[in-house]
Amino acid sequence: MRRVGIELKMFFRHRDAVVFTFALPVIMLLLLGSIFSDDFEGTGITANQIFTAGMIAAGVASTTFVNLGIGISQDREDGTIKRLLGVPMPRYEYLVGKAVLSLVICACEIAIMLTVGVLLFGLSVPTDVGHWLTFAWVFALGVSGCAMLGIAASSLPRTARSAPAVMNLPYLVLSFISGIFVIPLKHLPDSLIAIGSIFPLRWMAQGFRSVFLPETMAAQEVAGSWEHGRVALVLVAWCVGGLVLCLMTFRWRDRRAS
Hints:
Elements: H1 2-13, H2 15-35, H3 47-77, H4 80-84, H5 92-121, H6 129-153, H7 163-177, H8 190-196, H9 200-212, H10 228-249
GO cellular component, one term: ATP-binding cassette (ABC) transporter complex
Family: Belongs to the ABC-2 integral membrane protein family.
Subcellular location: Cell membrane; Membrane
């Protein structure tokens, strides 16, 4: 918990990082919601309401996968991790601190986007326990899986300067082929749908849509249903697979260090 407190203090002390971290998904949501605001194919649901549910998943992926990958790469290069290895602290505490930081940021980011969706786009927030339980397990599994992938992928950039490009490229590609920026997902070519279905972002977005959209919107999904069982299965698989990737690929030291 002490390490978590340190990570939170370091994050919120950098005001520019705080502003841009929270602003990116919100600005994207405002832009998409302003451009696509009509009734979606006669469903009675506006396109910006659908985008709100999807952008929640994109915000989680950005905060965990992208930000963790970039942040750890920077800590590795500037010597932060090297100095921590010299203090009497278990190594896993550093990674736990980063993961919990991402969890806190994700929670704040979702609260902001839901506020925007409700106030500006007329999004309906569920009132029954069942929908919120679905939200809870999709959120928990999505954050865990994407955080594991972000930690594992932090070893890919050769330098901290290249980390933003290395981490943002797969994130942006997956956002397009996972039904975040293109709705409904079934309008994409089958090959792109198949590729996007391998990764957790598509299933996380589908899970969040099932929480904030009416049951009639399930017909717009590729399978014509919310597929909660498959959503849970894929997200759990990525939590386990992400952990394995972390154990296999994570580097504590900069690869250029002698």
